[in-house]
Write a structure and sequence with these properties.
Layout (H helix, E strand, L loop, with lengths): L2 H20 L18 H19 L11 H4 L16 H21 L8 E4 L2 E3 H25 L7
Antiparallel strand pairs: 1-2
Helix pairs in contact: 1-5, 2-4, 2-5
Length: 160
């Protein structure tokens, strides 16, 4: 197994878990907060999608952008307190954006030479190129832990 394969396995595992948690949730469900002051899933999805693009841009400034104009502002830190569904995109649109962005991420990972994984990324929380690619999956997994709580609040059964 190559480093590229191992990182892809991490991304695929995160995808399986995260998409499983989201599968039966409605647009309204995505606005439920796991506790007061926590971010709802809809905001987290936009944040994750925009963050994935920004992480890739740190190591490949010429990376293709699958994000529509305004997404990064729409899901910026100043929007975390909104519960107005009109401030956010639909689940379907967010998942389509995620798939488009993840496709780019996987294409870039497949082309990455393994000797580049030890090079600096310029990103403090993922200091090497390899750790940054790994963070693409880990970041989603960090957030989806909160989704489990929302699922239980909504009466959904445990999945994993």
């Amino acid at each position: 197994m190559t480093a590229n394969d191992a990182i892809k396995l991490n991304l695929d595992s995160a995808d399986m878990v995260c998409m499983g948690y989201l599968e039966d949730l409605s647009d309204a469900d995505l606005l439920v907060r796991p506790c007061p002051g926590a971010n709802h899933i809809n905001w987290q999805l936009g944040h994750l999608i925009a963050s994935e693009y920004e992480m890739l841009k740190a190591i490949h400034p010429d990376v293709s952008n699958a994000l529509p104009e305004g997404l990064e502002e729409q899901y910026g830190r100043d929007k975390v307190g909104s519960d107005n569904p009109n401030d956010f995109r639909s689940k379907e649109e967010l998942l389509n954006l995620y798939r488009a962005q993840r496709k780019i991420s996987l294409e870039m990972l497949a082309k990455e030479s393994s000797d580049k994984f030890d090079q600096p990324s310029g990103v403090p929380y993922a200091p090497t190129v390899g750790s940054l690619y790994s963070m693409l999956g880990s970041h989603w997994m960090m957030h989806c832990g909160q989704w489990v709580i929302v699922r239980r609040i909504l009466g959904r059964p445990p999945l994993f």
